[in-house]
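Section 5: illustrative case.
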């Protein structure tokens, strides 16, 4: 319950930060809708393309077909580009504002609290965590506005064309969601651990630069070097696991897509 309340509070705060850039979000939604429309058009015209042009060999329409294909695909490409551009612009503006807010708040914190916290962790929060938030906002908006709308349009077209095959394919979606959820939880856990390690790495680097003379005087180069190397190796291993989980989701989706295709042809 506490975790859910925190998530709701975090979403409200993000929406508050992005509010000054509502016009960018609005433009992103417009071009998402346009891109989804073009995707739907591609799917919708497959059947009449074969029924009225290719099979009867209607050469009159074949002459203008390349131009139509070019317009549809170019239109979708431009719409996707503009959707991504406006949404990324909004997310980067959000990250910029958040960094400034954190920095100003940092200047108001008492020296005692600063000395009690890790400088590396603080730097990591200002630089890395806000960068993750920027990517997160951009990716979520793409999934929510562009891909979700495209899926809805394509499902409607598929149901109109052949509802039996559509429901057969959709019966495999719960299996896909189940395996994706398992891998997503593991990815989240590893990502959190990796962020903590990055904070430690930045802290070590900061300590090295501040106490550079002391390290030289006490001949501690080997000790600090080994410590830095160990943390770097840990981060490397964490990110390797992240790659496995992230790409693992794609493997599951690819397998289920192939399974759905096999069912359709069967």
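Designed sequence:
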């Amino acid at each position: 319950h506490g975790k859910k309340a925190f998530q709701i509070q975090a979403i409200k705060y993000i929406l508050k930060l992005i509010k000054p850039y509502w016009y960018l979000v609005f433009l992103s939604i417009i071009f998402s809708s346009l891109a989804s429309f073009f995707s739907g058009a591609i799917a919708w015209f497959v059947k009449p393309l074969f029924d009225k042009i290719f099979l009867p060999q209607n050469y009159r329409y074949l002459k203008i077909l390349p131009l139509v294909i070019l317009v549809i695909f170019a239109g979708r490409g431009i719409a996707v580009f503009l959707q991504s551009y406006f949404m990324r612009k909004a997310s980067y503006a959000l990250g910029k504002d958040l960094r400034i807010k954190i920095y100003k708040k940092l200047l108001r914190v008492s020296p005692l609290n600063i000395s009690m916290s890790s400088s590396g962790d603080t730097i990591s929060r200002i630089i890395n965590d806000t960068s993750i938030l920027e990517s997160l906002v951009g990716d979520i908006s793409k999934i929510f506005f562009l891909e979700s709308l495209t899926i809805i349009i394509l499902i409607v077209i598929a149901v109109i064309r052949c509802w039996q095959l559509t429901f057969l394919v959709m019966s495999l979606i719960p299996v896909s969601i189940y395996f994706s959820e398992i891998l997503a939880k593991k990815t989240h856990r590893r990502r959190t651990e990796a962020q903590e390690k990055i904070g430690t790495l930045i802290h070590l680097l900061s300590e090295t630069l501040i106490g550079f003379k002391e390290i030289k005087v006490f001949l501690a180069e080997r000790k600090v070097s080994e410590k830095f190397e160990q943390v770097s190796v840990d981060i490397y291993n964490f990110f390797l696991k992240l790659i496995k989980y992230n790409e693992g989701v794609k493997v599951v989706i690819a397998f289920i897509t192939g399974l759905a295709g096999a069912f359709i042809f069967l």
